[in-house]
Amino acid sequence: MSLFVRDEDDEQEQEQLVLDLNSVRDDNAPEANIKDGQDDGEEHVEYPLIAREEEEDLVDQIEPINISLTLPLKFQQLVLEDLVSDDSLLILGKGLGLEPIAANLLHTLSAPATIANVTKRSLVVVLGATDEDNEKFSEELQELSWLDEDDRDDSKRPFIVIKSDQYTADKRQKLYQSGGIMSVTSRIFIVDMLSGIVNPSKITGIVVMHAERVNDLSNESFIVHMYRQQNKWGFIKALTDSAEDFSTGFSPLHRKLKDLRLKKILLWPRFHIEVSSSLMNKDTKSVTEINVMMTESMKHIQTGLLGCLKKCIEELKRKNPTLAIDYWNIENALDPNFLGVIHMILDPNWHRISFDSKQLVKDIKLLKHLLKCLISYDAVDFYEVIQLVLEANKPSVDKRNSESPWLMADESQAVISYAKKRVYENDEYVLEENPKWEQLAILLDDIVIERAHNPHKDGPVLIMCSDSKVCFQLKRFLSTMKESKTGSRSYSGRKVMVDKLQAYLDAKEEKTNVTSKIQEAAAQESQDQEVTISRAFARGPVTSKRRRTRGGAAVAAVGRLLSAPTPGDDIESKLNKDDVEMELFELDASDIEDLGNEDEEEQVEEIGKVAEEPEAINEQASTRTFEYIDRENQVITERYQSKTDDLILQELMPSFIIMYEPDLSFIRRVEVHQANFKDDPARTYFMYYNDSVEEQRHLTAIKKEKEAFTKLIREKSSLASHFETEEDFSKFSIRKSQVMNTRIAGGANFRNPSDESRVLVDHREFRAPLPGLLYRIGLRVVPCMLTVGDYIVTPKVCIERKSIPDLIGSFKSGRLYEQCERMSKYYELPALLIEFDNNQSFSLEPFSETRIRPNSVQAPHPTSSGRMQDEIQMNLAALVLKFPKMKILWSSSPYQTTELIMELKASREEPDIVKAVEAGTKEDKQRNNDSTKSNIITLLQNIPGITNVDLYSIMRKFKDVNKLTGMDREQLNDAVGEDLGERIYDHIQANYIE
């Protein structure tokens, strides 16, 4: 089976699946002239680019326009035609050119329309685009504008990115009115729509990138819902190349179409007939697969890690039988989304599962990371990672069950021993090199020979790796490798391994020195604090060292636990721990010089000189010279970046491409690149370890994508037609009579049930899903620049919303105290809303664990987690004692928060926008309002010893609050008595007077 393109054994099944993809196009489709940059003489099909008007005479005056495209492949042109013809969701195979298709789509849809010799510029909004997407769109659209060769101002399609508050509201309004293509963040755009800065009826259409991220709580879904309510003629297009994200849950395709308000789905996998015919070129040279064998030590380590991983998964299923699913097995463990699926099931019940289960989840994550390190790291780096893991699992006073379960398995001992064997065995340094290094060097040598026979191959050599660490590793190897002069061709990277060993020893020595200095300083400090006394007054030695105490062992254990320092269990922090043992490599610099031949001795001596003279490094850096290297002599190493890989191929135009590690997205981009440049295709090499997790991970990625498209094709074939009207959505909105009491009592003003209910929302809150939910149930959401609170529900009710991570951060910074103080000052009923995530457990335990050790290899002990929960609860209790008027609202999800706000708004007045915005911006000149008076009463009630009779008597004597606060000590003593006057005066001065 080939690893490069696809599974070739299931062509009959794929052809059967493709039959469902070839939907019949509408024969009655209107026409618009679309011109490709490469005219192939085919019949042009025309599509409408503006809304239809009811007047037939106006339609007749629409002039056809010519549009240039930069899509040379046939299947990309067909995808664009399908997108232009109808509103639809496009799911494209990974790496097949989603960004160029999107750029040409934007260029086509934003074309100005000419009606009766009047040109009107379109307004197209792009949502969900990343920085890389915007950069590629800008370059592609600039090239397309040059191809059109139209210099008229009204025919230009400006591309503007609005991703922060760099543009004022007036500036954004002018940009929207001028038209063009606007790539806007969803938070800014929804605020602009609600504020009236942009009119939805004036928007030509919306293009949603990365549609897999859209859900019922996302801002993109909120925008599409609001846009379609007010604009029936504009288009909505959604694009994605992540089919795997549509394969989870029940009817994922139906739910996604509902969130995007779309009815049509376009599926274009790699095995589509048009895609295969476009990419399969007979003239393209075959790909050379280089199957590298792992060393025996690497095989044993991989077997041990997989064995430990299998045991961890089985133990997790055994401890959680009611939550476990069939997906939890070793076959799916290499899936990148494996941990995500585990957390998706366990997170809602995280506070109920045991400590062992939490530790097993941590171990599964760690073992997957170790499998990746085994393939990518060299022997010294991998052994260092193993040593750090062992140090993180050392037992200590403040930890119970500190050792991870996987370290107790027999396979773990094989992993540790063989990791050490790769570096050091039988009192000798082995320093085992990565097998791929030598094969890469031989391959580069073959490329030099091929260039000599084929001088037309004048492009550089491009080596693609998984991450920047591997790129740096290969650069060091290629710049220091030595060729063996005896026997067959072989290359050695001994110099790199010696450098790695030297760096490891230096780090160990430096850590030991730092530890010793800290211990000496602590010992000196303890000696300075001792008091020198005479022997006559010194206490004699205790005759009995054993003393019986009821519960003494438990008390001592708790004392050690509370007095122990916070454990640094994460791998990075272990470098600074006090307990450091030189378990290996107890050699000095002179021992390293005996590792190899004379050349290697000179290299180690040079390393020592550089380490002794740091000034020489800066001097060499300042005097570094650069020289020009011909393209055919360039060897460039880059890491995989799915959004910019095609730009690298276009800019470098390499003659040889070496995939040092497999990556499905880049493989597809190479196929597209080869199909675009058929005249001189690049020679491609594909390297992978045989019978390794690297090979299996790549095959799993191909399998998962194929299964995802298969499921989507079958769901599409049985997808029911969806019809909707405005009445269908209005029935889900609340009726004002349901939340408004029209009874007139006590001289209250009459309220009309048809009046609009509104909620004032701070503009920073639109990152959360709550404003969108409030809008969907029928409330008018008014974005404001609020200084006090996040949500103003009524003139008296102000809510400060906090998610749990934000709550913990606010306690730490002290920001929450200031926010509650302002709310209590300006509103009668301040409230703190603590909102949990819909997919998280309704408990503080998971968040307290995250606060303890966010990057730990171990799950925190329940005792430590309980202490953190107690700390959060104590902070909340102190906050309530400080602000007695403030209420705390607990919400398990944004949906429940919506219900709480509706209950708070029932039978109450609507908030005043002007007062809400002005609150907190300036001090009130008069303090005789009800809010200030209520604050004074609350402060008086908190005075120790004051009774309700005293409070009533004081309020009768001082009806003017300013008069009470303005009196001096003697006047208060004369009015209410010396004892009570002193307490009132001191309390007001300390808590009220600023």
Automatic annotation (TrEMBL):
UniProtKB keywords: DNA damage, DNA repair, DNA-binding, Endonuclease, Hydrolase, Nuclease, Nucleus
Gene Ontology BP term (one): resolution of meiotic recombination intermediates
Tree of life domain: Eukaryota
Any one GO CC term of the record: nucleotide-excision repair factor 1 complex
EC number: 3.1.-.-
Domain ERCC4 residues, every copy: 758-838
Example of a GO MF term: single-stranded DNA binding
First-level EC class: hydrolase
Short name of one Pfam family: ERCC4
InterPro entries found in the cross-reference section: ERCC4_domain, Restrct_endonuc-II-like, RuvA_2-like, XPF, XPF_nuclease
Signal peptide span: none
Biased composition (Basic and acidic residues): 23-38
Region (Disordered): 20-42
Ranges in coiled-coil conformation: none
Family as reported in the entry's similarity comment: Belongs to the XPF family.
The protein's name: DNA excision repair protein
Protein's organism: Wickerhamomyces ciferrii (strain ATCC 14091 / BCRC 22168 / CBS 111 / JCM 3599 / NBRC 0793 / NRRL Y-1031 F-60-10)
Native organism taxonomy: Eukaryota, Fungi, Dikarya, Ascomycota, Saccharomycotina
